[in-house]
Amino acid sequence: MKTDDAPTSAPATCGSCASDQQGPPTVLMLDLPDLDRRSEALVRAQLGQITGIEDLSLDSCTGRLSVRHRLSSTTPILDALLAIGVKGTVAKDGESSSPAGCGKPTVSSGVTSCRAPVAASSPPSPPSTGNTSRLLISNMDCPTEEGLIRKRLEKIKGIEQLNFDLMNRRLDVQHTSVDLAGILAALHEIGMQASVEREAGPSPRGQATYLIEKMDCPTEEAMLRKALEGMAGVDALQFDLLSRTLVVSHGLPSEAPITAAIERLGLSPVLQDHNDPAPAVTKEFGTGITKAEWLRMAAAGVLALGAEALAFSGMEESSMPVIAASLAAIALGGTATLHKGWIALRTLSLNMNLLMTIAVIGAALIGQWPEAAVVIWLFGVAEMIEAMSLDRARNAIRKLMDLAPETALLRQSDGRWAEVKADTVTIGGIVRVRPGERIALDGVVVSGKSAVNQAPITGESMPVEKNPGDTVYAGTINERGTLEFEVRARKGDTTLDRIARSVQEAQGQRAPTQRFVDRFASVYTPAVFVLALGIAIIPPLVAGGDWYDWTYKALVLLVIACPCALVISTPVTVVSGLAAAAKRGILVKGGLYLEQGRLLKAVALDKTGTLTHGKPVLTDTVELGPLSRQEVLRIAASLDALSEHPVATAIVRAYGDQPHADVQAFEALAGRGVKGAIDGETYYIGNQRLANELGVTNERVLQLLEQMEAQAKTAVVLSTATQALGVLAVADTVRESSKVAVAQLRQLGVEPVMLTGDNKKTAQAVAAQVGISDARGEMLPHDKLLAIEAMAAQGPVGMVGDGVNDAPALAKASIGFAMGAAGTDTAIETADVALMQDDLRKLPEFIALSHRVGNVLRANIAFAIGTKAVFMVLTFTGHASLWLAILADMGASLVVVFNGLRLLRAPGERDKVQ
């Protein structure tokens, strides 16, 4: 959705407030039952264009919209909502008046207003649904820990919702508690190492609260006082060494200088204020495995295998040397697993750590000490390798943020250039980027020319030329030439930040396959545990079987039954797919859409701006009289230079920078064209109606006009009062990439359909050029919505558009695609999938990637379940041992992880639609 089609605001003029007020403003309360994530931003954009609306507030949780306005009727508001497919009904609160006044202009939801002081009659604020705190849990690596945490925290009163992000070790806790101490204590009880990244609730204006984990004693306090007390704008400091917090009262427009000053001391501050953008990804944890841990695990392996070797050499498995070596191996390599198993038992969480603990203890109790040691050592090694593998998926997202440099060359007030931290640069600052450097922030070029590699943002393979007035994005690379640009987005709000944050949020949402696997594992694990218990007890009791043999088989079954490979396969694959799409300039808003893409049966395509370039260009210049083609174009451009009509603009643009003729006695002929005198001769340029009035439409002219109209072109005639001199045609040209994309969609089994508001003849002409057989013209937004509903009845359908008029259809489609979303907040926030550049070939590329993700998911699940089924059979036939079972489980886990990570590789020829 482009900004010119979907403006985010239309500021009302504040000027002399008193003169505009004919009475008190009215507050209209509406219920929007159909409100969803995609339409919320569009409601703000649509209503922001209506003159007379002073302020609006929207609660997406309750669907309640409050509009403060000075309109004589509410009809324009309701009509504007209907135009984007949102039905609003007047709430029981109805309408109320607010006292007039001329307070300071305020901004709410993107609408500037002359807002009166708050009074008792103002609409009440919607009730809070809880606060959200963000925690970093450094040892939360896989769904096992998630299940443990979920079970423990859901018992705490006041916790409303838990949102896990395993890839970045984050947990968002929505709660009604003010104090996080209880939550942190509960996590500590189950062995989770948690710290607060962001506390709930904003700090008061002019006050910044920092969590400084390294602030332990008065020495750090003295350092901070020295750094901050002399800083301009800082009013007061309040230290709390026990909770390691610092409250800074200040009068600065931003906390960035304070944060930078603390960072220079090496104290790693965390700003506890959700008004600032949350970091897109967590700090780098590395693998979390130290050299000492690897050495300890190596020693445990030597001891475990040594115990096994002693047993093979003929020594009794219950002899003291064998037991001593086994116990040492368990102590060195299995303490963490046993501790987690104890926590799982205490909290009654049936997870793989508990299964492994029972298996190891059981093996020791029946005298299989070497196998107990080898099993727990192999499990520990598998956990460490798995953690390293998962870090690769995590780093795929973190690398997005590494693209933007931490510093920028900023022009100072005295005109000199100084390198500063990028997060201290404010909007409006002028930044210089030299050849070969990465661009630190989003902005608009003010001087210089260069080519910029935009692949990290849009996925474009070729550098894009940048001139004054063009937009540049953080994370892109300046190829040649020096550029100076005005900053338009601060660090944390750039397009790159929004992409990383969207991918981060998307991978935190469970994909359909992952939800299925989680449900399956929740039933499968207890079932296998009961089965193992039955195998250990029933045969010896009922059939007189050997207790040792059947207990051993039960322990083998417990080990092979661990659902780790099955559960870990889906999140790794989905995250890899999301990161791979982001590399290609395709922003996917959740695993649901990544999986659904391969199921699409049809895709509806808007015409203007999607299949075509979205702006008219001169396509034909045909001379008919004594003038040459170049002279026809010169006279036409000279006349049209004084007109603002889109057709005239296209003709002038085609003529370029060449000198225009001097036009005298210029006159606009309403609804027909223009006329003017050049070198003493009066010329006319206009539509067929004007040519008919002048009597210059001979058979040749009529033939040309009909021919060009059939090709979806707008034709004008240049003439004198007695003779036609030429016919010029203007059209919104089709993108070459659209033809390729339509062909690729068909190869993937997806039927493309064109939906456009243009006339049917134009729709048919454009459809013929790109290869679409089903083209529907003269469609209003409501018609597009009905068309999508009809197509959805036949199977999943996608909708591709770039304007607010496409919003109802985008919202109704199974997947809504936004074209050319780079730098557009509304598109990135509202679309299910945002194609970051104006290239429709990204659509079949996304569907092809979705097919690959689906294939990998199915292969991983089949492999994980198949491996377990084979080894369960081997268990009953007596051919599987404990150490072989854990080796198989470890191998299965690593195979599915690395298979999922294959999606991260750079796109090659095999990834492209043939």
Automatic annotation (TrEMBL):
Transmembrane segments: 318-338, 350-366, 372-390, 520-542, 554-581, 856-876, 882-904
Topology of the protein relative to the lipid bilayer: Multi-pass membrane protein
PROSITE patterns noted in UniProt: ATPASE_E1_E2, HMA_2
Reactions that this protein is recorded to catalyse: Zn(2+)(in) + ATP + H2O = Zn(2+)(out) + ADP + phosphate + H(+); Cu(+)(in) + ATP + H2O = Cu(+)(out) + ADP + phosphate + H(+)
Compartment(s) of residence: Cell membrane; Endomembrane system
Domain (HMA): residue spans on this chain: 131-195, 206-270
Cross-referenced InterPro entries: ATPase_P-typ_cyto_dom_N, ATPase_P-typ_P_site, ATPase_P-typ_TM_dom_sf, ATPase_P-typ_transduc_dom_A_sf, ATPase_P-type_domA, Cation_Transport_ATPase_IB, HAD-like_sf, HAD_sf
Major localisation: membrane
GO molecular function, one term: P-type zinc transporter activity
Any Gene Ontology CC annotation: endomembrane system
Name this protein carries in UniProt: Cadmium-translocating P-type ATPase
Lineage: Bacteria, Pseudomonadati, Pseudomonadota, Betaproteobacteria, Burkholderiales
Protein's gene: cadA
